[in-house]
Amino acid sequence: MKEEILTLLSDENYIERSIDLIAKKLNCTSSDKFVKLVRLMNELEETGQVVRNKYNHYYLPNQFGMVLGTLTINKKGFGFVVVEDQEKDVFIAPDSLKDAFNKDLVLVEINQHSDVERPEGKVIRVIKRGQTKLVGEIKKGKRDYYVDVDDPKFDKRIYVDHAHLHGAMPGHKVLVEIKLYKPILKGDVKKILGHKNDPGIDILSIVYEHEASVEFPKAVYEQIEGIPDTLEEIDVSERVDLRNEVIVTIDGDDAKDLDDGISLERLANGNYRLGVHIADVSYYVKEGSPLDKEAFTRGTSIYLADRVIPMLPHKLSNGICSLNPHVDRFTISCFMEIDQNGEVIEHEIVPAVINSTERMTYTNVNKILDGDQMLQLQYSHVKELFFLMQELALILQEKKARRGAIDFDVKEAKVIVDDKGETTDVILRERGASDRIIEEFMLLANETVAEHFKWLELPFIYRVHEQPKTKKLIQFSSIAKIMGYTIKGSLENIYPNELSSIIEASKDTPEHTIISTLLLRCMQKARYDEQCLGHFGLADEFYTHFTSPIRRYPDLIVHRMIRRYLFEKRLDNRTIKHYQEIMPNIALQSSNREREAIDIEREVDDMKIAEYMEKHIGEEFEGIISSITNFGFFVELDNTIDGLVHVSDLTDDFYFFDEKNLRYIGQRTGKVFKMSDRVKVRVASASKIDKSVDFEIVGMKSNKRTQKTVIINARKDDKKKKGHSKRRRKYDDSRFNKREKSSFHKSKHSKSKHH
């Protein structure tokens, strides 16, 4: 009935909008049906889907000059409402926010006199609170305790009476739940995180701020008590015994969750037989169990500067499921016969038991491939395997390049922290030959499994990456053209190889990093879907995630369906219908949790980078101009740290912004600042709290702003000049996030970014 009501009200020619006449129109004249209709109309009104005027007539919000959207508040006090399927955000002045807070779902009345290109409005009603739990510091006021919230966009105190402190003292960082919004905010302390000065509390605060699960429920710990630590008493007769095969794992130096092993041999016909052996997590994590429910809730492991928040408890992730060397472990193994062109001509997927020959690291394998004689001698029993792996990986890379896969090759930073939780260094993550080897093998296994199930036409989950939006490509094309690169072909129906060719053309040039980053920003986010929609970035028709079930829930689901369909031969209608019903929700939850994990990882990195740069205020560095806006430009250092040079800090001349060519030009001197220019900068300021860094151009008189102006009432165009904080740039518009990790480039720090 809900859809019928909304369809009826959407008709502009429909006049009779009272509840009685709506009931008559929908044939809800009986008392039971009428009561049901009234309840449904109340629900629609409460959720902002319909509005009612003073005559008790019902309309859709847009018919009443209103919109429903999510509020994002700038730390300067104003906000914007993002409306689904609407290009322009609605500006909300501070005095028009009413009682709304950041992330609230709000009903907004549009000011009919505002510019169509810069719509303004006022909050009419909060439909749903976006933040009910926040992290902050307990402080003592004159009479009451209150929580000073960490989020700079939340500028109100949350008062906590003695009964709801639950042992929290001034100086404690806590998770507080808002229980009352009017007349003042009142809360209940749900968890004491620790003292604000304790090591790692800053990172933990961000984790809890995003409401990510840290501790496992009691039911999970009770379940894992029954899981054995070894396979000694478990029947392995129904598995393919690979314990005598040479199988190695290759991971980062500090990795403990080893979920993939590799075997490889050259066949008599000249082809390669590649085995990708993945930890059989689904054997231990049964559908519907406490472990499974918690893994579904978490969706993914989260890799932070000082810790890992695992999807599965350590007993599984670092223990029985981890492919540790010289111990028996269960795997689901995908064997592929590959010809000289990199094509998989045969494959099989089997349940197996392995005993890993060696636990290798990327560092040591890279050294072996580079000719380190001591390591070659130490690992003489597997040395030749690595050279054969390199040979096959090069063939696979060439095949991928032929089909037009885009290799962004964007630099990634690694934040180094000490045992006190303080940032000691920010370095580049190096990707050597072994990283690319594992990347290619994992990609191939993911492709092979996806294609296998696509042709079976069974319910499944895929990793999809759709074509970029035309508008974003137009933006990229115009910037690339300025730097001398032109996209060939139609932007409405572009092929990956057309974009890949630009990346290749820019290699070994100063603007390569800029081109790669800008192209990455215009890509759509990869996600999970029950339909096989292809992967644009990889130029692949079939793709899924199979290789990391320890740390990603979709991979666990793929393993579970492999077991059901292939090993147990459960192809009955009941099984198929079950997976058809649950797969859309699994895909949506997994996509959402992945995005949340990326946000947490990014926010932690930005905070620790700002903390690091606080120690380097006044120091000089070289970098390149990575992006240009109408309020200044961002400079990226060689280690990927970026900071804003505000236009007001260009003090040697009056600079005007050439929007068409994205550059700043000095009115008197004619001096130009444009993207990819190499410049020398000084660290003017850095803020761990704001997670931002500001630079000044060396040689210009300092114009450092010692006092920030509080904007009481600002228009959207003023915001672009003054209020564009780095935080908004990074978190509200991922297209312009330098460290934005494309979803199909998601890494676990010790793994390839293509997993």
How would you explain this protein's 3D organization?
This protein is α+β, with helices and mostly antiparallel strands and 755 residues long. The protein is 30% helix and 25% strand. The chain has six domains: 60 residues, Orthogonal Bundle (Arc Repressor Mutant, subunit A); 64 residues, Nucleic acid-binding proteins (OB fold (Dihydrolipoamide Acetyltransferase, E2P), Beta Barrel); 66 residues, OB fold (Dihydrolipoamide Acetyltransferase, E2P), CATH 2.40.50.700; 282 residues, no CATH class; 54 residues, no CATH class; 109 residues, Beta Barrel (OB fold (Dihydrolipoamide Acetyltransferase, E2P)), CATH 2.40.50. Strands 3-4-5-7-6 form a five-stranded mixed beta barrel. It has a five-stranded antiparallel β-sheet with strand order 10-9-8-11-12, covered by helices on one side. A hairpin with a 5-residue loop joins strand 19 and strand 20. The C terminus is likely disordered.
How many angstroms separate the termini? 44 Å
Strand order of the largest sheet: 3-4-5-7-6
Average pLDDT works out at 88
Low-confidence stretches: 706-755
Domain module tally: 6
Alpha plus pi helix count? 18
Strand content: 15-25%
Can you tell me the overall shape? globular
Give a count of the beta strands, DSSP E runs of length 2 or more: 33
SSE class: alpha+beta
Rg from alpha-carbon coordinates = 28 Å
Describe the largest sheet. 5 strands, mixed, barrel
Secondary structure: helix percent: 25-40%
